[in-house]
Amino acid sequence: MIMKGLKLSNSVYASKMMMGNGLDVQGGRLINNRPDSMSGIAQAAIAKKAMKRMEKIDIIAEGVSMGDMRSDMMGEY
Predict the structure, then answer these.
(1) Is there a contact between 47 and 55 (Cβ–Cβ < 8 Å)?
(2) How confident is the model at residue 51 (pLDDT cuts 50, 70, 90)?
(3) The pLDDT of residue 4
(4) Can you give the pTM of this predicted structure?
(5) Which of the residues 22, 23, 40, 76 has an alpha carbon 20 to 30 A from that of 32?
(6) Is residue 23 a contact partner of residue 13, using CB atoms and an 8 Å limit?
(7) How many CA atoms within 13 Å lie on the side-chain side of 65?
(8) How many Cα atoms are found within 13 Å in the side-chain-facing hemisphere of 7?
(9) Is 57 helix (H, G, I), strand (E, B) or coil?
(10) Confidence class of residue 74 from pLDDT cuts 50, 70 and 90?
(11) How far is residue 56 from each of residues 5, 42, 45, 53, 68, measured CA to CA in Å?
């Protein structure tokens, strides 16, 4: 069956509209390169967890710094 006169310029696969949304056509197959979708609540939870982790790291770094200062001071006397 030969179909002549088909205009595929408005086809979903031929349009440039899909460019930029993470879907690519490679070898006639649709490749999904989109990032994983995540709800706003999940993003907020991840941000909160990252902030809490940074606070812990800052507290530990400050403690190490204070310990170094004390050991330097005790070494002089």
Answers:
(1) no
(2) very high
(3) 65
(4) 0.48
(5) 40
(6) no
(7) 6
(8) 2
(9) helix
(10) confident
(11) 67, 21, 17, 5, 18
Tokens read off for 53: 């982790």
Structure tokens at 10: 């408005």
Integer distance in angstroms from the first to the last C-alpha of the chain?
98
23, burial (CB in 10 Å: exposed 0-12, middle 13-18, buried 19+): middle
Amino acid at 45: A
18-47 per-position pLDDT tens digit = 456 778 888 888 888 887 788 889 999 999
Residue 71: what residue type? Answer: S
18 contact partners, CB below 8 Å, separation of at least 6 = 12, 24, 25
